[in-house]
Amino acid sequence: MPLPTGRSGFVAGVDPATRRALFDVDSRATRLVYGVAASATTAYVDGDLSAVAVSKLDHVSMDTGDYVSILKYSGGLLVIGSVGATGTEMVAIASSTGQSIVNSTNVAITGMSADSDLNGWVTTGAITPTVAGFYQITSWVTFSGGAGSPRRILDLFAPGLVGSMDVDGGLNSTDLVVSSLVELDGAQAVSAQVFQNSGVALTVDFRLSVSLVASMTAGPQGIQGDTGAAGADSTVQGPQGDQGVQGDQGIQGDQGIQGDQGVQGDTGVAGSINLTQVEIDVGATPVASAVVSVIDAAVTASSKMTGSIAYVQPTGKDLDEIEMDSFDLKFEPLAGSFNAHISGRDGSIAGPFIIWYAVAA
Q1: Which residues contact 170 (CB under 8 A, 6 or more apart)?
Q2: Is beta strand 202-215 parallel, antiparallel or unpaired with respect to 337-344?
Q3: Architecture of the domain defined by 276-360
Q4: How many CB atoms lie within 10 A of CB 328?
Q5: pTM of this prediction?
Q6: Band of the pLDDT at 56, cuts 50, 70, 90?
Q7: 3-class secondary structure, 95
Q8: CATH code for the domain defined by 91-215
Q9: Three-class secondary structure of residue 59 per DSSP
């Protein structure tokens, strides 16, 4: 399938007079598509603001051979990419409805079906573009019901975690949206997972769009230029002569007598390691990293220390919170104590953790 020849759309601003979102689809900023936030049925194209009706996925003509793809969704319009002609867009949209999300469990989104998929990228659990390049990925999920103030998380993978929305407490949000610009190699899958802890299973509706922004496929090689004129004659060193024939190898001397083997030394004492377990707390407010002081009379400023986060449930925290996160842990030995430097690799950290550590002189 040919690659798109048009330009990808992106949000360029908001018209304060009309409250329309402006989407720039031309690098020279001469043509705009206007999406009306209050209505998901009309798009305004070019400076004349002529109204164009939009269904679930339409391709609005800007000029001859230049189209922009517009996706209609709940609450507004979304420009997802421009193409050289209808039917050649590098974009896929998939959705699922009514999937059950059990309580306090990360659940992968499944059961997706294609809303728009001319290139065969959509499967039941992922969208896998077959063209290497940079992609704009947008996912959104709508929860049904749920009592109290539950935590709700939408994670986007491509294939590693590339975006996440985590809502906790009194907001009790029913809609979560995650959008990321990522580079894909033409074989990597885009997928999502959802978490909620309302106390009961909830159902969700889900939609995922993947749109090519810039292709990484190399263009054809240009025409080779003419050969330059020959240089003027100069004093040039002659070619190197042939290497002479290698002489015969001399006769190898007799091997000397091997000396007696020395007496084996005494077996050393078997080593041992003592691990100490302690609970540390980085505080209730989420932070990127923290330093926690731990008192231990066995530690000196010259001690060698090693350790890790223990797979042990801390006070007031579920064990699955340890499973979901990954951490960096370093030790700073002091006289009679040490500082534990802890940080989250995938985001913020908060609350207590159990660590194991060992001290050597």
Answers
A1: 149
A2: unpaired
A3: Sandwich (2.60)
A4: 11
A5: 0.45
A6: very low
A7: strand
A8: 2.60.120.40
A9: strand
